[in-house]
Amino acid sequence: MSRRGAAAGLLAVAALTGCGGGAPEQPPATAASPAAEPVRIAAGPTGQTAVLAHVYAGRLREAGFDASVVDAGTERADYLGALERGEVEVAADYSGNLYLYLRGRAPVGPASAAPTGEATPTPTPSPDAEDGGLAEDLSELLGLGEERADDDDVLAGVQDVLPEGLRTLEPAPAENTVAVVVTRPTAVEHELTDLEDLGPVCDELALGTDLDFAGRSYGPEGLEDAYECVPGRFVPFGDQDDLVDALLEDRVQAAALFTASPAIEDNALVVLADPLNNFVPQRVVPVAAEDLPDAAADVVDGVSAQIGTEDLVLMTRMTSARDPYTPEEAARYWLEGGDDT
């Protein structure tokens, strides 16, 4: 997608969500004085968190802080270490992956795999994958017994296991978790609204996934345990565009995608609800140093309150277009016209 196309798509969605109609008036920016508090924000693990870092920085500068975005690495060990050492004061992350990392578990991986084409063999789950799905594993880690973990449980868990000197700020409504999606005709044909509906017809369908899905505990084992869903075939893809094409062409009848993927909106795909929370919750949550000034924390909290999943979709659309915007450019777009202040 070109820049023109990406911007057109952004404006169209902004109009539908009530965010369009020209850039709203913003509070006048306050020039940072030599005494202004410096706030350094880590770009974080993904393109989305990099955009958010520049959005935080823009709002903080408007409030009079000397804010800047710092490349502290895309690995959690890197930017959490930078937070602990006082090299940065804020970083955005995703609640589920962050919790699993802090508990010593491997995160579920990036939102898109490197393009390697389509593979055809049915994958075999990793022997290290635990029974019961990731939500059950989370429940055990969080001490919930048989109750499955939800957003609030994971967010509370993150706060409990953060290193000393760090804290979480207000989470955004936005999430970017894995979901099973189908085309509208498939949803109508099988009367599908959630994964409980999918279970009885699962063996009739092929499920397209990324290359790592089979080895994750929410993958084949999680779907079978939670929903008695055993697809007729698992078909792994190394490129999301190929996966979406296969879904639209009915070469697979369901696909595991991230909820902030523009492909869902662009193709009117139906996201099947996950009432048993098989897939790990992934809310956007800023992590900050304990000594971050309260006034700066309030600014970041104000941004979080305005960030929904649709905003992550728009940010992804801009930064992944054929002629992509930089994270700073995408943030400037959002600051000038993508919010409703």
UniProtKB/TrEMBL annotation:
Domain ABC-type glycine betaine transport system substrate-binding intervals: 38-336
Low complexity composition-biased segments: 110-121
Pfam family, any one: OpuAC
InterPro entries for this protein: ABC_Gly_betaine_transp_sub-bd
UniProt region (Disordered), positions on chain: 110-134
Gene3D superfamilies for the chain: Osmoprotection protein (prox), domain 2 (3.40.190.120), Periplasmic binding protein-like II (3.40.190.10)
Entry protein name: ABC-type glycine betaine transport system substrate-binding domain-containing protein
Organism: Kocuria rosea subsp. polaris
